[in-house]
Amino acid sequence: MKVAIVGTGYVGLVTGVVLAEKEHDVLCVDNDLEKVEKIRKGIPPIYEPGLEEVLKQTLASGTFRITSSIAEACEFAEVIFIAVGTPPGDDGTPDTTAVKAVAHEIGKNIKRYIVVVVKSTVPVGTGDLVENIIESYGVRHELFDVVSNPEFLREGTALDDTRHPDRLILGVERQEPADILLKLFECLPSPSLVTNRRSSELIKYASNSFLAVKISFANAMSRVCELCGANVAEVMKGVGMDARIGPAFLQAGLGWGGSCLPKDVQGMIAVACNWGYDFDLLRATVVINQHQTAHFINRLQKRLHGVNGKKIALLGLTFKPNTDDLRDSRSLIILESLLRNGAQVTAYDPVANEAAKKLHPEAKYAKNPYEAAKDADAVVIATEWNEFKELDLKKLADVMKQKILFDGRLIFNRKDVEAAGLEYFVVGERNVR
Ligand code: UGA
Question: Residues in the chain with pLDDT < 70?
Fold first, then answer.
């Protein structure tokens, strides 16, 4: 099928290459000409495992192309996806300016029937808005349908998530466009739910909000565990063994960050409030998340008797492993707090040192974890990169001044850490000294 995708962020680009890999004819569109040039040369503008390879393959086979022209996309495609960003506005409500701008361009350029699919995360009712914008150009209703098709891929595992989706959600007002999209997505088998547009739009917010609730619940339990001497990893493992609950997203740590969960939880709170509901469960979820990072920093400060003048190695800067994304990273919150309080921070991240240096030139950046840990008063694990799980703890302890390891992501086993001569502080376990 001939498919156009407007917006080449994580969602647009990954969806594009995966559909192209499945032999659909894909034309991606972006108004950032530099990005278009890069992608045309096979260089993805984001770090995502495996993406460069499949981009190069699909460019070479001719099933993937890129342009900056929405007019060209409207002429070419049977289905056009809108996958542009919806950053949070001042009050937390998602800013749909870019979605509306694309709808205007589509409205100006529709000549024959096309299915317009909103993949961007948008507030309930945005599908109606897109429809009205297109109609405002005098486009007859028989010439288009607007469908909601939220995306659930995760950064770091985006290709795999897209190739093997848990579910396909389609929000439609008529069955015909649903049939066209079910055919398009036949190549990516998954259970599907065809519902109305507003329900579909809300499913995305509800999903990300519920994931945040799960993590904040595990983090709240971690605080209880630290007080009562239980072990949060074991507790949540036991809880997750209940088939009604499931083990996913119950990993306690420094809290949730990234470009989606924080934005979508705030968006859900704001949107519910606009509709007249005070979502106090989600407000508490946000507060627990903020406290989780602050509490970790307090523990570190307490152990070091203040961080002023102390040397701290911060391992991991991205909001989670296998991405170069620093947006709303818990690690950066820790970095900022340590610097504000007079610590000398040497950070190391497998992929994001350079990007972090631009944001925080006042910190030092090391070439590897051992260089970061040299003469340190403490090492902090802020992101669970595999590279850190394989650290030689004895070698790490040897180069440190004070042998103190703070683990914000529960990646080590206490016995191994202590055998290396390190004092171990981990989320969700009482301090043992
Ligand atoms: C999230 C959702 O998981 C995707 O389904 C969704 O498509 C995406 O947002 C989006 O809306 O675009 P993502 O932001 O890539 O994906 O990251 P997650 O894997 O959800 O992780 C979010 C944060 O939660 C990270 O900071 C991670 O470290 C943290 N987390 C996750 C935990 O602290 N514990 C867990 O058990 C799981």
Answer: 432-433
Residue 281 lies in a domain: yes
Give yes or no: 260 in active site: yes
Q: Whose CA is nearest to atom 1 of ligand 1?
A: 154
Ligand 1 close to Cβ of residue 332 (< 6 A): no
Task: Tell me the per-residue pLDDT of 360-374, one tens digit each, with 9 for 90 and over.
Answer: 999 999 999 999 999
Per-residue confidence (pLDDT) for residue 433, from 0 to 100: 54
| Segment 53-59 long-range contacts (CB within 8 Å, at least 24 positions apart) | 54/17, 54/18, 54/21, 54/159, 55/13, 55/17, 57/21, 58/17, 58/20, 58/21, 58/26
Considering the domain boundaries, does residue 362 fall inside one? Answer: yes
Does residue 176 belong to any structural domain of this protein? yes
The reply to whether 191 and 264 lie within a common domain is no
Asked if residue 214 belongs to a domain, the reply is: no
User: Domain of 402?
Assistant: 231-433
User: Residue type at 52?
Assistant: E
Whether residues 324 and 388 fall in one domain: yes
pTM of the predicted model, to two decimals? Answer: 0.95
Q: What is the CATH number of the domain that holds 287?
A: 3.40.50.720
Q: Quick one: pLDDT at residue 290?
A: 98
- Residue 185 and residue 236 share a domain: no
Ligand 1, closest atom to CA 150?
Answer: 7
According to the model, what pLDDT value does residue 90 have?
83
Ligand 1 contact via 253 beta carbon (within 6 Å)? yes
Closest of 314, 379, 380, 390 to residue 352, by C-alpha? 314
